[in-house]
Amino acid sequence: MGWLGLDDTDSLRGGCTTQVFHDLIEHLPSNVECGVPRLVRLWPFAKRRTRGNAALSIEIISDDESELMRVLESFWNERILPLKGDVLESDISPREQAPTSPGMVWFDQQPDAAIYWAAVRGNVDLEDLPEATRSWGGYGRIGATAAVAWPAENVTWEAIAWRTYDAAGQRRIDETTLSQIDEWEDIVFSRDPRRGTGLIAPRGHSPVLFGIRSLTKASAEIACQTLLASEETEQHDGWRVFCTNQASGDHLQGNHRGQVTATALNAARKHVVISTETFSMISYAEGGEVNALARWLAVGDEIEARGLVHPNGSLHVEQLRVLNPVPRKQRRPLCQTCGVRMKSMGSMQGLRCPTCKQRTDDTWVDVSESPPFDGWTEPPVDARRHLARPLAWSENSVNDKKPT
Ligand SMILES: [Zn+2]
User: Fold this and answer.
1) Whole domain around residue 206: which residue ranges?
2) Is there a contact between 17 and 205 (Cβ–Cβ < 8 Å)?
3) Distance between Cα 364 and ligand 1 center (Å)
4) Are residues 142 and 186 part of one domain?
5) Are 42 and 49 in contact (CB under 8 A)?
């Protein structure tokens, strides 16, 4: 028995890694027993990043390991190797992507979780990897190994269905059924409550028809089957439920606290750069409330932020709150006798209470203004990272289920 991992097979010709992995599982010898397939998201700023940055793994129990290795070897040579070197055209982001460098690993024993934590929180190079029992290919071995090592302590589920080979253009998914499924207790992130639109179809060029996310395996399965059974949903070519680290928050470590020393708004792009004495952060327009709060900040505010530190050193904020705002405005003081706000008598003439006519010197008092949001803010559901854990799920989450 052992663990199989795969990553970086996204390509124009061969589709995405989830589909290649699905295909690989279908091709395994009939005498093996498989665990639950796992889809593992990794550090979004990785140097060798592919779209979505997801790697796959599965536990396989086999009586005949040499037969299993022969099957893996031939699948590698015939189905995966031809994908090598393709540059995936990204119609989502202009960011340059590395040419496909598929990697596959086999471990007799699950490697230590340390390599998963390293790969979900930072950059890992090939030489950092624990030695696999058997390995194939290039940089994809990094994600493949991390996916195998994932301890799956904090999981959600995703049922993925793929389009047929000749499908093109707009995806046809039964929106009415989806809106009903969205009401199910365990189904998460399937619709955008602000816009009333589905969030299960990938944007742009992908063989994935949809991915429906859930807190339980059973709900993911039933939701997927229900959607596929509808005549309003287009034909599909296979589906599978994956155990995932999505919404685990595993990519974040620790909170950043500081006092704002400078703010800079990029008016055209609406992002904000906030400097504090301890860290500097950037908040993008897509951040919704996070961005609105970041734009409200003034020098002197004490803030706390969570996010990923980009290799250039800046924190890409994902969650933000104000601990202690500086006063924003100044007003005339209240009358000490009757509590009415004093009024100016004119330049250099002091203040007078409009009720009791008491007079004082010409003074101002600081007035606090509440931040536009109390407590932590997060981006709207359609703008969050796959790994982002919703604030509504408390620190000790409701879904600490382990894959069965
Ligand atoms: Zn008064």
Assistant:
1) 156-244
2) no
3) 16
4) no
5) no
